[in-house]
Amino acid sequence: MARPLALLIAVIAAGTLPALADREDHDRARRALERGEVLPLGRILEIAEKATGGRVIEVEFESDDGRWVYELELVTPGGRLIELEMDGASGRILERENEGRGEYHGGDD
Hints:
By secondary structure, the chain is of the alpha+beta class. The protein is built from 3 helices and 5 strands, in the order αααβββββ. Strands 1-2-3-4-5 form a 5-stranded antiparallel β-sheet. Strand 1 and strand 2 form a beta hairpin. The longest helix is centred in the first third of the chain and has 12 residues, at 2-13.
């Protein structure tokens, strides 16, 4: 477990920006944004980082029951991994999982 965490910290320290997980995610997100169905990725990142105090390291984009959802992984300054599921249209956090702490479903985050 320590090795993947060290790799995540190295990526963050290098200042790399998160990107959508693959080209297909990118294309779907771009089309949804053009149609006004989702918030821009920059706004989603801003909301996620403010809510968690972490930095986004990975983003996935998918449709879940007819709703666009951003799935993000963040790492905090202390090295804790946080996974968020966010509504693409509103930026509302639908689900949050803190490494070792279990899940939180649908708050006002």
